[in-house]
Every structure is written in structure tokens, then in C-alpha cells.
Amino acid sequence: NNISYGSLLRNTLISASADNNLDRTTKAADGAQAGWQYWCDPCSVGFNKLKSYKEHLAGKRHKAVIAESEALWEAYLKSGPTFYDPSIAQIDATRAWSLDLFIDGLQARSRSSIKHVLVSGVPSGQIDPSLRLCDLPPSKRAALWRYLYTSGIPCLSFMVAALPQHYVRVKELLESVETFMHVERLMKRSSKHGQKATKISHIYDIGCGHGLVGMLCAASFPHITVHAIDRVPRDSFQAQREAFVSSGCSLSNLSFEAGDLSILRNRIESKSDGHHFGEHSLMLCVHGCKSLTHDSIEMAIRQNWAWLSLPCCLQADNHISE
Q1: What is the pTM of this model?
Q2: What crossing angle do the helices spanning 262-270 and 292-302 adopt, rounded to 10°?
Q3: pLDDT at 321
Q4: Alpha carbon 114 to chain centroid distance?
Q5: Quick check: 197 pLDDT over 60?
Q6: What is the distance between the alpha carbons of residues 175 and 67, in angstroms, rounded to a whole number?
Q7: Range 148-187 burial, b when 16+ CB lie within 10 A, else e
């Protein structure tokens, strides 16, 4: 009685849009500037009613943020030169993560010579894909460290610190982590309305590119075999894998194979792989070019697999009738 299910994520996942499924009550570090009457800086959240603000201060979320701040600060002080800066105040490294706060003032993506920056709470575009971690001011690097360190993904902040910095592009990093979190939620969805969690044994990261999403899956779920597939291996793929290993995460359950979707198609037809192509697989396609998104979803549905896609360039003739 298992059913095929999946998710199609917007290409504007990491943007200033209100559609990014994050807490939209966070607006700016200066609550008054954002129109809030009351602002909790440690929790990055604002309120317009005093009663709501007081209830928040007495609530579990606020107390948890305050309770973990000292431990976070101690960890930040040991984070190394990639993230640590002596000018950083404790609140900058321990404040609760807010994508709105983080993107405020960052360089926006532009297809012209006219540059502009992102503004918190304003749907003004995407983070410039060329923006690197080392380009960020210290306070932004500290906030990003906090996000990575508390993500629950093994070794992530240490991997990023160990990675040659020309490979650490902010948009790719944020997008990969947010996509992984969708993968995690998708895997927890049940085929029986919450009564039994779906057991995924294989993940196929087709058109994997830099491969970070698949690596996050491999690091977080060592019992799952992750198959990264792309036409050619990128230098960034190998660099990230080596950084994970040097940070204490072997990724022994991750493999790379040069090719395209035909690899899976041929194995399904010949059943030549070492496992059963059953319903316990997940098709992952992040920024699949041209028809890859469409084709990978169709294959997953035919095989009764779970699937998750973040489209890149979709061909109109595949999706729009004449």
C-alpha cells in the first residue's frame, strides 16, 4: 500500500522572498526600524504587543536560547580563523538564526552592471552566487557559524572551516543545508498517515554537481547508501569530501559515478545492481539542467520512490502545452 511521494522546491529557496518557509516574524536587529514595538535580540524575534513579548520572555524558546548561549560562545571561541574574529561580541555568535537578518545588506544577484543589496523583509532577489564565506563581514561569518554548528548535521561547521575558501560560496552552502532539511522532513513522512516512518535505504543524487546535499545526507544517515551521479566529477566534490573526512566524518556510504540518468534506467531494466530497486529509495535532483528534473521525477514515480527536486532550467515544451 506504499505510495510514491515527493516535493518540488522553488528555485528561489535562498532569497528574500516570504516563500522560504522560515520564521517570517524576524525582521531586523533593530526592532523599531522594522516596525516592531518590542524586540528580543537573543531570539531574533519582534512583537507589537507587550503581553506577547512578556510571554515570549517567560517561554521555553527564549529560556533555551539563553541557556545555550554560554556553550555556543565557548565553541565559537574555538572555531578557528575561518569563523572567529576578535571583534565579535557574544550576541553576534549566539543570537538565534534568522535568514532575514543574515541576508540584510548582502550583495544581490544581478544580470546587469547595476549592483544592489538585499534588504531584510523585502523580496528583492537572491544572494549573489559568487559571494564567498571569506567575503562576509565578521558578524555575518559568526551568524553563519552559529547556523551551521547548531544544524544537527555531523561535522558541518568543521568541514566548512577545513574547506579551501574558494569553494565556500554562501548561496550554495545555505541552499544545500535548507534542501537537506527538506530531505530530512521528506524521509520522515509516512506512507500510512504518520503511523510508520518510511525507511529509505538508498538516495540517488542525480546531476549532483558539487554534491554537498548528498554529502549532508550521507553524513547524517550513515545507514543509507548515497549514490552521487553526474557526467564529470567536480573539483569541489572531491574537496568537500576530503574536508568531511579530515573533520572526522568518513562518508564511507557515499559513492560517485560518472554518467547520467541512463545509469539508473539501465540498472532498473537489467536489475544488475546489488540491491532491489524497491520503494525504499529517494531520487534527489538539485538544479538538474534541461529535462533532468522532469525525467528524474517521472522515473521516481514509476519506481514508487520518494523524490525531491529543486528545479534549475525547465524546458517549456516539457511543461507548457502549445
Answers
A1: 0.84
A2: 20
A3: 52
A4: 29
A5: no
A6: 29
A7: bbbbebbbbbbbbbbbeeebbbbbbbbbbbbbbebbeebb
